[in-house]
């Protein structure tokens, strides 16, 4: 497999000795450009040439849709004063440079290119020469790193060339300059490239070089260094700093893949602008004090040009976590089983049946008094007793009447069956309300704002900074509400302890918080956990300094880990999610105080009403007794 750059510019810097066309091989250059799918070529010649011949070459390249430009270095301009940025840099295209080694200006030009760090993966370089040893010796002193695309074309015979690539694993870290054969060209076979491996497959061995790295650990557990904390299995702090720990595992795999070592330093923040300069890991990258940042960094517009990102190796999920408040209405528990129309119908049926049973009992008593044949027990045929009996049956309290007529008994039995059916529906609903999870009514940020919960935010910098990138109205209102709290920022464990008590909605990174809550909450408390997401998953990845030669190496390595599933394994280990409710449908669920308190309210209301009426009746009796005494005294006189 070959790595192709689509729609790219190859700056074909042909430092030609144009006394004859044999100083370079145009078919080789043409095939090389097509091999890498290059669409532009920049000619740089080292002395005046035949413009007709140059025009022929230009037309041939243009016929293959390749843009052409040139620079004549023999025109008298100083190589050091040339505008390299204007000529060589193409924002949308990498540049490939083809050099004729024998030109007098070549070494000076290569030195200037090396000073400007232009031996970069953005540019292709193709160097023609007669001696690979001389070219190797000279190029070994230039700033050519592991990402460079520098190919040496050595003429080993007439119309036959051997192609080799040269690189240093890291000039900055004292690597060893290398050369390896990657292909050949001859007039018969044309360009033959080694397709068995890619550039970075050939350069995967960094030979044990030591690179400087940084990792972000804001706070350390007591009596631990940051290295001890990263590898600690202490349950209390195991899931603290998940992002840094997860990325550390990724870089351990990369160090084995590419055979390099790391000297790691700790930073307390990811990066903020302070006094017109960046601090934290971003500041270390911007000043090139480190070669790579192990901690994941977000891609933000204000960081553009400060460092170079690689690719996604981890992600964070900022959200609100809280225990959902109980939604049971203590005044409405025993009215919930039926809608108001059903309750109204039940009351109407009770009133109608009470009136009918009173008439039945009244008729029985009159017939019994007139006929000695009908022997019945006299029943109280008052309206109060009838209402008391019928509603006693409805409430499963039995009936005190003893009807004699068969018709009355059938009527009473039918009403008993009706009350039994109603009771079954009613009791089933009450039991199911105890077994089933209470409905969650807080599902949006607006509903959370209107709740009675307290609010706080994690003191981690990237959690605090998230609101500066959110533009939803309710989220901004929430931020203002948090900032008005007496203590708006809390440590992770303090905030989660308050979440456990059910009094706080905590804004934090869920990938760490859920893992900690799983070990501290009971099954019932886990079932009450609720989350409100107001931003999506935020991808993060390692960063490197600008123009770092390690950028592509790290990027390709992480993507290979994605393909093999190792990144997924790291995520499964260090990224936690909202735990599922483990409550079983067959669990024995006792009646809690919230449900029981409604019965106490009913009892208290009845007792208070009874006492109030009793006092009224007592006062009424005392009043009539005094009236009777006043009426009797004048008669006695």
Automatic annotation (TrEMBL):
Domain called Ionotropic receptor 75a N-terminal: residue spans: 25-214
One GO MF term: ligand-gated monoatomic ion channel activity
Compartments where located: Cell membrane
Annotated GO biological process: detection of stimulus involved in sensory perception
Bilayer disposition of the protein: Multi-pass membrane protein
Stretches that traverse the bilayer: 338-361, 382-398, 410-435
Keyword annotations: Cell membrane, Glycoprotein, Membrane, Receptor, Signal, Transmembrane, Transmembrane helix
Residue span(s) of domain Ionotropic glutamate receptor C-terminal: 340-607
Top-level taxon: Eukaryota
Secretion signal, residue range per the UniProt entry: 1-21
Pfam families the record matches: IR75A_N, Lig_chan
Family from the record: Belongs to the glutamate-gated ion channel (TC 1.A.10.1) family.
Protein's name according to its UniProt entry: Ionotropic receptor 75f
Source organism of the structure: Bradysia odoriphaga
């Amino acid at each position: 497999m070959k790595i192709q750059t689509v729609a790219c510019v190859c700056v074909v810097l042909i430092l030609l000795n144009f006394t004859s066309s044999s100083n370079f091989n145009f078919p080789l250059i043409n095939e090389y450009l097509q091999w890498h799918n290059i669409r532009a070529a920049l000619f740089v010649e080292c002395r005046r040439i035949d413009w007709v011949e140059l025009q022929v070459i230009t037309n041939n390249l243009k016929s293959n849709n390749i843009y052409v430009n040139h620079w004549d270095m023999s025109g008298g301009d100083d190589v050091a004063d040339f505008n390299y940025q204007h000529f060589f840099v193409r924002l949308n295209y990498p540049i490939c440079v083809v050099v004729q080694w024998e030109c007098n200006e070549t070494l000076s030009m290569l030195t200037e290119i090396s000073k400007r760090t232009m031996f970069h993966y953005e540019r292709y370089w193709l160097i023609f020469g007669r001696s690979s040893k001389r070219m190797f010796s000279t190029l070994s002193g230039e700033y050519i790193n592991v990402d460079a695309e520098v190919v040496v074309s050595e003429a080993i015979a007439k119309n036959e060339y051997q192609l080799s690539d040269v690189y240093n694993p890291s000039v900055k870290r004292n690597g060893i300059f290398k050369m390896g054969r990657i292909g050949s060209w001859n007039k018969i076979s044309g360009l033959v490239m080694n397709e068995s491996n890619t550039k970075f497959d050939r350069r995967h061995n960094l030979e044990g070089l030591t690179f400087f790295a940084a990792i972000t650990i804001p706070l350390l557990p007591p009596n631990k260094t940051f290295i001890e904390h990263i590898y600690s299995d202490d349950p209390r702090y195991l899931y603290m700093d998940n992002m840094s720990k997860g990325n550390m595992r990724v870089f351990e795999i990369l160090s084995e893949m590419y055979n390099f070592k790391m000297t790691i330093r700790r930073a307390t923040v990811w990066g903020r602008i302070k006094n017109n300069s960046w601090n934290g890991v971003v500041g270390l990258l911007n000043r090139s004090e480190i070669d790579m940042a192990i901690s994941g960094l977000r891609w933000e517009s204000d960081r553009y040009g400060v460092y170079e990102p690689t690719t996604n190796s981890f992600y964070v999920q900022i959200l609100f976590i809280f225990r959902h408040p109980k939604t049971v209405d203590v005044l409405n528990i025993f009215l919930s089983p039926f809608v108001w129309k059903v309750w109204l119908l039940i009351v109407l049926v009770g009133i109608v049946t009470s009136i009918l049973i009173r008439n039945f009992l009244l008729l029985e008593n009159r017939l019994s008094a007139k006929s000695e044949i009908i022997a019945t027990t006299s029943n109280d045929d008052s309206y109060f007793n009838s209402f008391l009996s019928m509603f006693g049956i409805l409430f499963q309290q039995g009936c005190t009447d003893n009807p004699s007529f068969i018709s009355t008994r059938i009527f009473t039995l039918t009403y008993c069956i009706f009350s039994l059916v109603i009771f079954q529906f009613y009791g089933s609903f009450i039991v199911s309300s105890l077994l089933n999870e209470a409905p969650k009514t807080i599902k949006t940020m607006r509903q959370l704002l209107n709740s009675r919960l307290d609010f706080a935010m994690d003191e981690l910098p990237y959690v605090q900074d998230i609101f500066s990138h959110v533009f939803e109205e309710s989220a901004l209102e929430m931020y203002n509400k948090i900032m008005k709290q007496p203590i708006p920022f809390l440590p992770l464990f303090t905030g989660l302890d308050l979440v456990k008590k059910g009094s706080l909605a905590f804004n934090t990174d869920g990938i760490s918080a859920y893992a900690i809550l799983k070990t501290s909450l009971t099954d019932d408390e886990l079932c009450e956990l609720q989350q409100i997401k107001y931003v999506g998953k935020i991808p993060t990845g390692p960063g490197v300094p600008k123009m770092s030669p390690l950028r592509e190496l790290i990027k390709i390595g992480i993507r290979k880990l994605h393909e093999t599933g190792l990144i997924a394994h790291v995520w499964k280990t260090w990224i936690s999610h909202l735990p599922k409710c483990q409550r079983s449908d067959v669990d024995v669920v006792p009646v809690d105080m919230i449900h029981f308190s409604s019965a106490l309210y009913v009892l208290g209301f009845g007792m208070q009403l009874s006492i109030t009426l009793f006092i009224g009746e007592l006062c009424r009796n005392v009043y009539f007794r005094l009236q009777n005494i006043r009426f009797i005294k004048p008669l006695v006189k």
